[in-house]
Amino acid sequence: MSRRVFITVGEASGDQHAALLVRELKEMDKDIIVEGIGGPSMAAAGAMVHFDTVQRAAMGIRAILRFTELRRILKWTREYFRQHPPDLLICIDSWGMNWHWAKLAYGLKIPVMYYIAPQVWASRPGRIKRLRRYVDRVACILPFEEKFLHDHGVDATFVGHPLFDDLQAPATEDADRRFPHRPPVIGVIPGSRSTVARENFGHLAEVCDRILEAFPNAKFLIPTMPATHDVVKGILEGKYPGGARGAGNENGLEIIGPYSLGLNQFNQLVPQCDLCLTVSGTATLHAAVHGAPQIVVYRLNPFYWHLFGRWVVKTRTYSLVNLLNDSRQNIVPEYIPWYGSNQPLADKALEYLRNPEMLSEQRDRLRNLIRGLNRPGASRNAARLANDLMLGRAETVKRTV
After folding, report:
1. Is the distance from CB of 164 to CB of 376 less than 8 angstroms?
2. Range from 64-78, 131-145, 312-326 carrying the lowest mean pLDDT
3. Which of 206, 229, 263, 294 has CB 3.0 to 4.6 Å from 276, enough for a Cys bridge?
4. Predicted structure pTM score
């Protein structure tokens, strides 16, 4: 009888990581059945996706409202597991959603592997109790996570970061082909969730207006994802009604004013950028792989930040690039939380663009960081852990009651 794996994914980047994992699982066992809830990337890799949980991914208050829909899917999953229990549940990222599925599987005695663990080292350490109780094995993607989780009684293995499974660090570009010998190219990376893009991109566009005042020929490249493309496009069409300043389509890009939007073109657009304005998340590390200097932001309501955020976030810094840096000196500037005037961010961006040596220095530091992290094979290593759990060869299987 074929083995069955059920994968649960809640947002776009997790969907991409799931796709890589699905391919590795199928390469190890051509007869394995992979199914679950997720998105189009996971489906394209050969998994049977019962519900799309990616297109409407959200955070904050909207995420709470979204749980009504997820609760319906969870109820369906409970009945499905009772009739067709999988050999393994793999939860990928999205702790706010996935711990409910882990708990469900635990109650039905289905082994659970968590891939891309919640950042319990950064905030809400109480999540460790649920992780330890409901999850048999964690496949973690950051080097320091393995020891942290072990120290808290969680069976964890560092597998590497899946970002490096299908990416290669770019070759160094000849300096005289870059800015300032041509107008600057600025990347604007709005995140992977529609709600995050909606909260951040309008303000980022205002910062771009300030850049255009100083550099009238500047160009802006925006790598979008399915959940964010229409949000970004709508905001720009509001700024340039009727296609002002040359709306059109070129090389798969949608041109609106000085902005070029590329759906699923991160790896094509970001290497062209002299500076990126990046919403905090995995995109910061992704841009670093391409050696793209960046300023990291995350727009937050100051009321919620002072009421909750400042008390639960325990790290010295917030962006992933700075967290992975051994030095206590940040590599990239952060505006997190970002609220109030947009002028300080605009001033920082202009400081970089007026001092290209600052761009060069940050680019060198990013490449040094990536050299130490670039270890392809995370998806295959995670697939091997999954295989161990299904075959009952895991070193320890925790079922704490």
Report:
1. yes
2. 312-326
3. 294
4. 0.81
